[in-house]
Design brief:
Elements lengths: L1 H18 L12 H13 L1 E2 L2 E2 L22 H4 L5 H19 L22 H28 L13 H23 L3 H26 L5 H24 L4 H25 L5 H19 L11 H35 L1
Antiparallel strand pairs: 1-2
Helix pairs in contact: 1-9, 1-10, 2-4, 5-6, 5-11, 6-7, 7-8, 7-9, 9-10, 10-11
């Protein structure tokens, strides 16, 4: 037992070392050449020989030198591309090409690495990986649903013996909602999509912590569940209200997400080290892989070929974790159902 706890502590120490080793980069949007390019583009509507469509219209979508039917269709206007954002993107890519020719390293603009757009999508690789992860989560949820309702015995009232069934259904809805808004935010990063992405991610980590505590400590009494749930929900609600109505602070949001996620992983890690669950190896693999994935999220590097950055790799690493989690959930449902059936006889 002590030996198992030692590897849990060692893994957590590795995670903490990852958190303090984040790479910092200078801000390319402070570059005088970049600023000059953006100012000139907003006046002329062109960057070099490339003239931009949105610079024919004002930021509110009204025509400047053309009739109403020349404006963008509504199904494209949700992305809120305008002359300023187009100029910033084209000047950023032009400036990065110049830096590459001069042998200089890439730099960040407005706190983010320069990523190439595809059909107006800001982070195409992250969007695709979020969609794939959502599909894996949905597949895992459906597999779990079929298992507990059609393959395992049910109580006389048609309810499942598995006491954590309701929590897992709620978790599935929350995680798929979070992945959906993550994909939308990666597609077009504006204030509204950021708020939806940050809020849904906060709900996800908060509920994941609740699920971890209730399952690890085998909590069944409603009063104890309320005592566990209430403070976590208070933190989640306070953070969401702060982001939406006071300050959309990305740095603070990241600290809150990592802090809650770290507590959740410690709970799962300690339980996996102490439990005699038949599928404890899956839980341990999930714990270790989650720690490594967290390190990958904090690791920062310029995008490869202009498309793949650390966040995209973190999204890719989360896909097998989703499959592993639902595999453990199915095993846990079988294990608990078997135990409860034996007790009822």
């Amino acid at each position: 037992m002590a030996r198992n706890l030692r590897w849990v502590v060692l893994t957590v120490v590795v995670a903490v070392s990852c958190l303090v080793s984040k790479l910092e980069a200078s801000e390319g949007d402070a570059d005088p050449l970049y600023k000059s390019c953006v100012d000139q583009c907003q006046k002329t509507g062109c960057v070099g020989d490339n003239c931009l469509q949105h610079c024919k219209f004002s930021a509110d979508g009204k025509a400047i030198d053309g009739p109403w039917y020349m404006q963008e269709p509504l199904y494209l206007r949700w992305k809120q591309w305008d002359c300023q954002s187009d100029c910033q993107y084209e000047c950023m890519m032009t400036r990065e090409e110049e830096r590459k020719r001069n042998g200089e390293k890439p730099t960040k603009y407005f706190g983010k690495w320069p990523l190439k757009h595809v059909y107006g999508i800001q982070e195409p690789v992250s969007v695709a990986l979020s969609a794939l992860d959502l599909a894996i989560q949905f597949h895992g949820w459906v597999s779990y649903f079929i298992l507990v309702y059609y393959h395992l015995p049910l109580q006389p009232n048609r309810k499942t013996y598995y006491e954590y069934n309701g929590l897992l259904h709620i978790y599935a809805i929350i995680v798929m909602n979070s992945l959906f808004w993550s994909g939308v935010c990666h597609s077009r990063d504006v204030a509204l999509t950021e708020r939806l992405d940050y809020s849904s991610a906060t709900v996800l980590v908060g509920f994941s912590l609740i699920l971890a505590i209730i399952r690890s400590f085998s909590i069944h009494e409603k009063s104890v569940k309320v005592m566990v749930t209430a403070p976590i929900l208070a933190v989640v609600a306070t953070h969401i209200l702060y982001l939406n109505f006071y300050n959309l602070d990305e740095g603070l949001h990241r600290k809150v997400i990592i802090g809650i996620g770290a507590v959740e992983l410690v709970v799962w890690g300690v339980w996996s080290a102490l439990t005699s669950h038949p599928s404890k190896w899956k839980l341990r693999a999930f714990f270790v892989s989650s720690i490594l994935t967290m390190c990958l999220r904090m690791f920062d590097f310029p995008p490869y070929k202009g498309y793949v950055d650390a966040h995209a790799l973190w999204r890719a690493a989360g896909i097998p974790l989703s499959y592993l989690w639902w595999s453990f959930a199915c095993d846990d449902a079988v294990f608990r159902t078997t135990v409860l059936l034996k007790k009822s006889k």
